[in-house]
Design a protein that fits this description.
CATH topology of the domain at 3-168: Rossmann fold
Distance between the termini: 67 Å
CATH superfamily of the domain at 3-168: Cobalamin-binding domain
Shape: globular
CATH class of the domain at 3-168: Alpha Beta
Helix content: 25-40%
Structural class: alpha/beta
Number of helices: 22
Length: 532
């Protein structure tokens, strides 16, 4: 059996580590069930730097070094892979997660030290890879580049100097077959429980022992900015013009959605296990959209979870000092899928806050996103959630492709009407999303043709990387967002005048640039005026 070291890369360095990596925790459980020896170095939790990473790698003769994560962890993953190969020339280095699945060809080229990658869902792929490792090691072979991995579906590897893909990996149909994540292998008491507090609700802020769970994989929406990691059916294997296999995502008009979710019994029994063993007092659902699952189940999924929450004694009960026994919980919602009845039921079962991706309150912008929401449905869901006693957390974005001055004002007016304070994220084209597919050429131009530089620059959309707005450059978006947050309508109005003058757009004409004009214009004059 293989001796495996999982390494969780650093992500969101500007914040403390708050979330046990759910995917790695599941794969660790699966590997241990197969009899493999597993250790985890959670570099994101410890953040001890390259020297300690090297010490961990030198601590044993690891036969498999497995790393994975989201695209924004690419810089950390690159360092991990490079150091791992330097310390262990004979180890089999495996890579998975969104960082690989979104750009398998490019990522395997940049990270040439990787021997084999798992594209898409790895719950079946990973243990099959470990079987090959055991077989090859028994035969005395540790030249992992010489192994033909293509017999395993969902793989990408090097074969005679070229990238080779296994067949398309099917998604597992029954999520309840998965074991519970291996939480014991992570520094819960040292790192994660001390960072339990989340300032989204009173209960979330007071949480002292929080863990996260994933009740489902999938979402019914086709949001242009979203990427489902190949877990919701939107991953396709296609042939290019040379007849070579490629992985494609979310091309306009080519959407598939597979909705999978754990049974309410599985979810609540897992939470009861977490409560009994770890004394958790808060659980956050990591699901993309809880309301999709409820709609997909015919409206039974969330009510049954809530019923079982009561039945298993998990509904929080407070004492005189405000402390509670039981488990509060939170998740995500969608403006067009929620209703007052389910929100009330969720509140009575301990739901504390729901995150809403409102994105925009401008109708013309909302029509381009793919969510099917309107300003009216956004406002309605916000009020319904408040009335149910659940804290609604509105997320918004600035810098959409057709963002203009009118959409900026419409957002500000909506915030004033609802009495909310929002600091929007910046529209970011993450690999795997439709936005990336459509805007890739422009993105590469903004990074002088160096796509890896863009990937290294990506963060959590709180700062600008490549812009996809037809009307505003990065400096303009920064300034406009600040004016929005300050509710400074005067500044927005004044800058629109400057913007119109720079682009020779007369007063009264639409405040937008058509694509041909955008390609010809020079940004520098707008920057000089803004800075003056």
């Amino acid at each position: 059996m293989a001796k495996i070291l999982f390494i969780n890369p650093v992500v969101r360095e500007e914040d403390v580590p708050k979330h046990v990596p759910y995917g790695i925790a599941l794969l660790a459980s699966i590997a241990m069930e197969k009899g493999h020896l597993v250790q985890i170095y959670d570099e994101n939790a410890w953040r001890k730097g390259p020297e300690v990473l090297r010490q961990v790698l030198e601590a044993d003769e690891w036969e498999v070094i497995a790393v994975g994560g989201i695209t924004t962890a690419y810089g950390s993953i690159k360092n991990i892979v490079t150091t791992s190969r330097d310390v262990h020339p004979g180890a089999c280095i495996m890579l998975g997660g969104g960082v690989l699945t979104s750009l398998p060809k490019e990522t395997m080229t940049w990270l040439h030290q990787v021997d084999v990658g798992a594209v898409g869902e790895a719950f079946v792929t990973f243990p099959e890879l470990l079987e090959v490792v055991d077989r090859e090691r028994a035969a005395g072979n540790t030249d992992w580049k010489s192994v033909d991995w293509t017999a395993i579906d969902g793989t990408v590897s090097w074969k005679e100097g070229n990238l080779a893909y296994g067949g398309e990996r099917s998604l597992i149909p029954e999520l309840d077959e998965l074991p519970y994540p291996a939480w014991d292998l992570f520094p819960l008491e040292e790192v994660y429980f001390p960072n339990s507090s989340i300032l989204y609700s009173e209960e979330g802020y007071q949480a002292t022992r929080r863990l996260d769970i994933n009740g489902s994989f999938g979402c019914s929406m086709v949001c242009r900015y979203c990427y489902h990691l190949g877990l919701a059916g939107d991953l396709r294997y296609e042939k290019d013009e040379k007849g070579e296999t490629k992985v494609a995502f979310d091309e306009p008009g080519k959407y598939t959605r597979v909705i999978r979710y754990h049974s309410p019994e599985y979810i609540v029994k897992m939470v009861k296990h977490m409560y009994d063993k770890y004394r958790v007092n808060f659980v956050a659902f990591l699901d993309e959209n809880l309301m999709t699952m409820n709609r997909q189940s015919g409206g039974t999924w969330l009510p049954e979870i809530c019923r079982l929450w009561h039945e298993h004694g998990l509904v929080p009960q407070h004492d005189e000092d405000g402390a509670w026994e039981g488990v509060y919980w939170s998740g995500t919602s969608h403006a067009t899928l929620c209703d007052p009845e389910i929100l009330k039921t969720m509140k009575e079962a301990g739901c504390s806050y729901l995150i809403y991706g409102y994105e925009s309150f401008a109708p013309h912008v909302m029509k381009t996103i793919g969510k099917g929401a309107t300003p009216k449905s956004n406002e309605r869901s916000y009020r319904w959630t408040l009335e149910a006693g659940i804290r609604p957390i509105p997320n918004q974005i600035i810098g959409f492709p057709i963002e203009d001055f009118e959409s900026i004002r419409q957002n500000m007016r909506a915030w004033d009407k609802l009495g909310i304070m929002v600091k929007p994220f910046f529209a970011t084209a993450y690999p795997g999303s439709e936005w990336f597919t459509v805007n890739r050429e422009s993105i590469e131009e903004q990074y002088e043709g160096d796509l890896e530089a863009y990937i290294l620059d990506l963060g959590d959309a709180t700062t600008i990387t490549a812009t996809i707005s037809k009307n505003f450059n990065a400096v303009e978006l920064y300034g406009l967002r600040e004016a929005m947050v300050q509710r400074n309508y005067r500044m927005v109005d004044q800058y629109e005048g400057i913007w119109r003058e720079n682009h020779r757009i007369p007063e009264g004409a639409p405040s937008t640039l058509v694509e041909p004009k955008r390609k010809k214009r020079k940004r520098a004059p707008a920057l000089r005026v803004l800075a003056s």
